[in-house]
Amino acid sequence: xxxxxxxxxxxxxxxxxxxxxxxxxxxxxxxxxxxxxxxxxxxxxxxxxxxxxxxxxxxxxxxxxxxxxxxxxxxxxxxxxxxxxxxxxxxxxxxxxxxxxxxxxxxxxxxxxxxxxxxxxxxxxxxxxxxxxxxxxxxxxxxxxxxxxxxxx
Length: 153
Hints:
By secondary structure, the chain is mainly alpha-helical. The protein has helices at 2-13, 18-50, 61-83, 108-152; strands at residues 88-92, 101-105. Strands 1-2 form a two-stranded antiparallel ribbon. 17% of the residues are buried. Keywords: Membrane, Transmembrane, Transmembrane helix. One of its GO terms (cellular component) is plasma membrane.
């Protein structure tokens, strides 16, 4: 959905309908945040599968993932809309290209908080999970090598 909204964005902008542009910008923002959130949930799943292998029963795991994956971005979008719906709108990236209009977040502060900071938090979480998984895989490999040496003797 992120790709579809992104690819149709400039075409929708050509209709010069502010409400339509706000809707498209909101959808683009939502699906971008949802993609980041699902990426984070995938790293948590990776951690549970490779580090916490045994005794990791989470009741209604898929339902909880879906609520987090689709709900957290919806909360962010709702907060932006509650503060001011005009944060979304039609903007041009350059004066020399009049056809470069794009429906997106108009306020830099909102962009940095709701996209860049959100991505940064997801990136930190994924990096922490990745390092944890690598350390776990390395320790398993080391233990396996020590065990094989013991049995060879």
